[in-house]
Amino acid sequence: MAIHKKEEFTSTDQMISMVAKAMSHPARIAILRIVSENPNCTTGDIVELLPLAQATVSHHLKEMAAAGLIIASNEGKKSIYQVNWPSWKLYTSLFGGLADNIREK
């Protein structure tokens, strides 16, 4: 019988899928690099470095925060972004485990 519901898969597989989806756009990879190199940056800081509109950057940041990749905190009217390092370490470990388990036979 085919499995059609996400809930039927392991929590590890669900988490890997969530992170892969959150990173599935080249802009999000670039944003993660920017945030990792510039802690406490704002949406405006990121917009200055990428050829994207502020609304587009905000959308990507929202998706990445929902997946736990970054942390947003408010400073007045501005949101400040940082990499969520504990989550990032967990995710890289999960992807490493996946890579170790998938080998050419």
From TrEMBL:
User: Record's Gene3D superfamilies?
Assistant: Winged helix-like DNA-binding domain superfamily/Winged helix DNA-binding domain
* UniProt domain HTH arsR-type: residue ranges: 8-105
Record keywords, A-Z? DNA-binding, Transcription, Transcription regulation
Transmembrane region(s)? none
| Highest taxon listed in the record's lineage | Bacteria
Cited NCBIfam families:
HTH_metalloreg (NF033788)
Q: Name one GO molecular function term.
A: DNA-binding transcription factor activity
Q: Which InterPro entries match?
A: ArsR-like_HTH, HTH_ArsR_DNA-bd_dom, Metal_resp_trans_reg, WH-like_DNA-bd_sf, WH_DNA-bd_sf
Quick one: signal sequence residues?
A: none
Question: Which species is listed as the source?
Answer: Mucilaginibacter celer
Q: What is this protein called?
A: ArsR family transcriptional regulator
